[in-house]
Amino acid sequence: MEPLDRLIAERECERLILDYAALNDAARWDDLAALYLPSGRMSRPSSPDVFVEGRQAILAAFQARPPRASRHICANIKVSIQCSTQASAVSQILLFTSAEGRPLVGSYNDRFELTSEGWRFAERRGSIDFTDN
User: Fold this and answer.
1) C-alpha–C-alpha distance, residues 122 and 119, integer Å
2) Which of 43, 66, 74, 89 could crosslink 110 through cysteines, CB 3.0-4.6 Å?
3) Which long-range contacts (CB under 8 A, 24 or more apart) does 66-73 make?
4) What pLDDT sits at residue 98?
5) For the chain, where are the alpha helices, taking DSSP H only?
6) 120-133: per-residue pLDDT in tens?
7) Domains with residue ranges and CATH for the chain
């Protein structure tokens, strides 16, 4: 992969992470689910080993959430390109929400695939970095 193509792919994957946070905060569930492959899967930071599988199931999981105000702050995004159609990333998240009494700090491990519509999440695995335990 040429250096410029690598930079473009890295930026597009980084943008996908940022768009995900903005769509989540705006409760735009259809647009958020469209960022996944049809066979994509995700786990929430509060349940990192429980995956929701498939774009439609992801959409249904978000639609089932009670309404809340939230702001996701994404940081330390590091994208790694495996080849011209596959990439991965690690990032940190700071979540402020009306449902929590305190901000939550977590991480995401992502896998991406390039499709005819652009980069999409193949997998998004969240975790909470600091707990009260």
Assistant:
1) 9
2) 89
3) 66/99, 67/27, 68/97, 68/98, 68/99, 69/97, 69/98, 70/24, 70/25, 70/95, 70/96, 70/97, 70/98, 70/99, 71/25, 71/95, 71/96, 71/97, 72/21, 72/22, 72/24, 72/25, 73/21
4) 80
5) 3-25, 29-33, 55-63
6) 999 999 999 987 65
7) 3-128 (3.10.450.50)
Place of tokens 């250096």: 3
Structure tokens that stand for 51 in this block: 């995956």
Segment 39-95, tens digit of pLDDT: 999 999 889 999 999 999 999 999 999 888 999 999 999 999 999 999 999 999 999
- What is the residue type of 7? L
